[in-house]
Design a protein that fits this description.
eight-stranded mixed β-sheet, alpha/beta, two-stranded parallel sheet, 248 residues, globular, Rossmann fold, single chain
């Protein structure tokens, strides 16, 4: 008998795969929604990359109806995303379009999934970014997309958003995640300041099971120093004390 049911949007990426593996090991039923299947998941929905936003949503909804067989989800976790740099002079529209498709579309579709399939009191977790709490002139498309996810989260946490009763919507705001690709691209970086993927998975499990949940609509920053990760609400002054939001 499973511990419950979770949909992971972006379950083939580094963080998504870590979540799928962690929750499968804890006997959760997992649906992976991504451009590619994850063989560790119980059920896979492969999203056609060339489809429109509405077509992708219809595709996900149709197949998830089949996979769930009238069961409800305890959590919908969206960790789809990516990164691209560049200012207005560096293929701004093209790069912004890519980030919108990778961050905003999946987050919005995950929210739609939650309205129909999330159980009352369930968790919807999206993925924002600490840099998008301020201006991002050297990565405008990225910052714009992540800021949209922040706004979506706040709207979902407000009354009459359409989420099931007592459901909680939060956005995780990592500063740097300890992924194999990040280590490859930045081999000389300080890895002790990167948040382990296992920490994120364990934090999500706490929230799914009702432990230490933030208020719905919260933007929750993850700050790691000397291998110690702190969970900080973005509305507090703690981020500024750590110079995370200092304008450059």
């Amino acid at each position: 008998m499973s511990s419950g049911r979770i949909a992971v949007y972006g379950g083939r990426g580094a963080l998504g795969s870590a979540c799928v593996n962690y929750f499968r090991a804890a006997n959760w039923w997992i649906a992976n929604i991504d451009l590619k299947a994850n063989p560790s998941a119980d059920f896979n929905i492969t999203v056609p990359s060339d489809a429109s936003w509405t077509q992708q949503e219809e595709h996900v909804m149709t197949l998830l109806n089949t996979g769930l067989q009238d069961n409800k989800l305890d959590a919908v976790i969206c960790v789809a995303g990516g990164w691209t740099g560049g200012n207005l002079c560096d293929n701004f529209s093209k790069k912004s379009d890519v980030m919108w498709r990778r961050s905003v579309w999946p987050s919005a579709i995950a929210a739609s999934v939650a309205t129909k399939h999330l159980c009352p009191g369930g968790l919807l977790a999206l993925t924002g970014a600490i840099p998008a709490l301020k201006g991002t002139p050297e990565m405008i498309g990225y910052g714009m997309a992540k800021a949209a996810v922040h706004q979506l989260t706040k709207s979902l946490g407000a009354e009459n958003s359409g989420l099931p009763a007592n459901a909680v919507a939060v956005a995780l705001l990592p500063l740097a995640l300890d992924t194999p690709m990040n280590r490859k691209l930045m081999p000389k970086a300080d890895f002790t300041s990167w948040t382990p993927l296992s920490f994120v998975a364990q934090l999500l499990e706490k929230w799914i099971t009702g432990q230490e949940r933030p208020a719905s609509g919260s933007l929750v920053a993850l700050i790691t120093e000397d291998c110690d990760t702190q969970v900080i609400l973005s509305e507090t002054e703690e981020l500024r004390k750590r110079d995370v939001l200092t304008e450059t």
